UniProtKB/TrEMBL annotation:
CDD domains: SIS_GlmS_GlmD_1, SIS_GlmS_GlmD_2. GO terms for biological process: carbohydrate derivative metabolic process. Residues 29-171, 191-335 form the SIS domain. It comes from Ruminiclostridium herbifermentans. The lineage of its organism: Bacteria, Bacillati, Bacillota, Clostridia, Eubacteriales. The keyword Ligase does not apply. Coiled coil: none annotated. InterPro entries: GlmS/AgaS_SIS, GlmS/FrlB_SIS, SIS_dom, SIS_dom_sf. Keywords: Repeat. PROSITE patterns: SIS (PS51464). GO terms for molecular function: carbohydrate derivative binding. This is SIS domain-containing protein. Pfam families: SIS.
Amino acid sequence: MVKMWEEILEQPEVLKKTVTTNMAVIDELIADLKSREISTVIIAARGTSDHAAVYAKYAIETLIGIPVSLAAPSVFTMYNKKLNMKNCFVIGISQSGKAADAIEVVKAAKEQGAITMSVTNFVDSPLAQTSKYHLFCDTSVEQSVAATKTFTSTVFLLINFIAKWAQNDELLNELKNVPDIMSNIFDKADTIKEIVQKYRFMKECFVLARGINYSIALEAALKIQETTYVRAKAFATSDFHHGPFAMVERDMPVIVYAPEGPSCKDVLEMINKLKNSDADILIISNNQELLKLGNSSIEIPKGCSDYVSPLFNVVVAQMFACNLSLLKGLNPDSPRGLNKITITR
């Protein structure tokens, strides 16, 4: 069994312990945040971690009501400029904790007296040491190049922290059940493997979602890119209506994340538009009517909020990419030209 698949299967157990590991520091951080007048949140990240940042942006803005900016680290590292971050809450996300550009953003913020937090999988990493507060993914070492359990633990940590910051007990209670419900998705492994067969010769595809699940469309496209070498491109359905839709042609593979919730109406409109263009549509949803509209479909657990469906959708994305990589005769653990740790500045 390849390491990527093993690490996908580890995720429910990882999620069960990661919040417990960080409960004390989360409480301390929230107390600090509530003692200050925070006007803006800034998040610095790259790659997979940046997709977790997109998720956090939606969650903070909808649950806390504070605007979130995704940092442009080049402002600090390439242009050598300083930003006024004194009244900001600045977050750096990096699984390895070695992202040099994210470190520079957090370092500059800390020097100005901003509250700083990092999320990494190594307590002794440079980013963890730079920030005032550190959330530890606690996944054990991830060996496959493709991030799976580190991404999911990052997102799970972030939403638990944000829900507690927002004092949203309903969401906190829902999150407690996520690891056990996630385990049920693995019962669909054979179904996903069978669906992947039809995409064996796929060279390009689009991945679409709306709202907070846009972060998962981005992550799903990246997983497909790095493990299968397919030219996958993610879009928010709202953006795809514009210029990008002109690229859709007959039998073009389009993966659509369509969970029940606020995005349902807009995603349904896009699905119907894609059907009229004879695209090959794979729908991931927990809405029975939407599932019926796809050429293929994968069902995720019912009754979950918009903050939780991304955690289930990303597991489906990981399983899809891993199976497709193996079907193409590739090694998802060691993609060509890639290393586990990528350091940009």
